[in-house]
Specification:
Length: 265
């Protein structure tokens, strides 16, 4: 694929090719992620946590999401760029949801939007889709509802919640979403959902029986050593590497090792 589209992702699912997805929030990181060949870049509202240091995803604004997304879009040549609609930008009514989605598409150049929730936001999703904007769903643990759940623990372990999740996933397919994220639910349930719909299911903490995987880039690079859920595989320990490098720089300045004769004019 020269350029990933929502169609390519659906093709990948029918060919049994797994989809790779990572977050990015800025130009430099997005360039690296795109060059490395990741299929989908998510400008997640997790920027609220990893970029801004908030405890939850709730405070990030639509303007801030557009700033992150436009920085990412300028770097990307191949990946599909999906942008989260932040808390408060789509829950009031379908018109607000459409207005926010249009702002994202026009002002950032992103390729699709993602919203958290099932049948509660069905009319909003339909309205956005009718405007020609591709929508990715997000079910299971939905961090914008943290104050309703009270914890970030595994979702849909009980029959009732599992059944609602399956219905919601089928509804998302039926109205025309091109993919759905399932966050932190039992692997068996996630596989069941993936097997029951034809659009790709991208998992985070949802096991290997789905059609693709997503992680927060700062977590998988080990830049953040405070967050260690079971589903997280760390590919580097950048926290340690960077602290060492930066500590060395600070020491070199103090000792006047830096700059040397070759590092000046
Ligand atoms: O904001 C985010 O990073 C996300 C992923 C965890 C799916 O929504
Ligand atoms: Na998100």
């Amino acid at each position: 694929y020269k350029r990933i589209t929502t169609k390519s992702l659906i093709e990948m699912k029918s060919n049994g090719e797994k989809i790779s997805m990572l977050t990015a929030y800025d130009y430099t990181m997005a360039k690296i992620v795109d060059t490395a060949g990741v299929d989908v870049i998510l400008v997640g509202d997790s920027a609220s946590n990893v970029m801004a240091g908030h405890e939850t995803t709730l405070p990030i604004t639509l303007d801030q999401m557009i700033y992150h997304a436009s920085s990412v879009v300028r770097a990307v040549e191949r990946a599909l760029v999906v942008v989260d609609l932040p808390f408060g930008s789509y829950q009031s009514d379908p018109k607000e949801a459409l207005r926010s989605s249009i702002r994202i598409m026009k002002e950032s150049g992103g390729h699709a939007v993602k919203l958290e929730g099932g049948k509660e936001i069905k009319e909003s999703i339909k309205k956005i889709l009718h405007a020609g904007i591709p929508v990715m769903g997000h079910l299971g643990l939905t961090p914008q509802s943290i104050y309703k759940f009270g914890t970030y623990s595994v979702r849909a372990k009980e029959e009732e919640e599992a059944e609602k999740l399956i219905e919601d996933a089928q509804m998302l397919e039926k109205v025309g979403c091109f993919a759905v994220v399932l966050e932190k639910i039992p692997a068996e349930l996630a596989k069941k959902v993936a097997d029951s719909i034809s659009i790709p299911v991208i998992g985070i903490g949802a096991g290997g029986g789905v059609d693709g995987q997503v992680l927060v880039i700062h977590d998988m690079l080990g830049m953040n050593n405070e967050f260690s859920p079971r589903f997280l595989r760390r590919y580097l320990n950048l926290y340690e590497e960077m602290t060492k490098a930066i500590g060395q720089y600070a020491a070199d300045v103090k000792s006047q090792d830096f700059p040397n004769e070759k590092e000046q004019y």
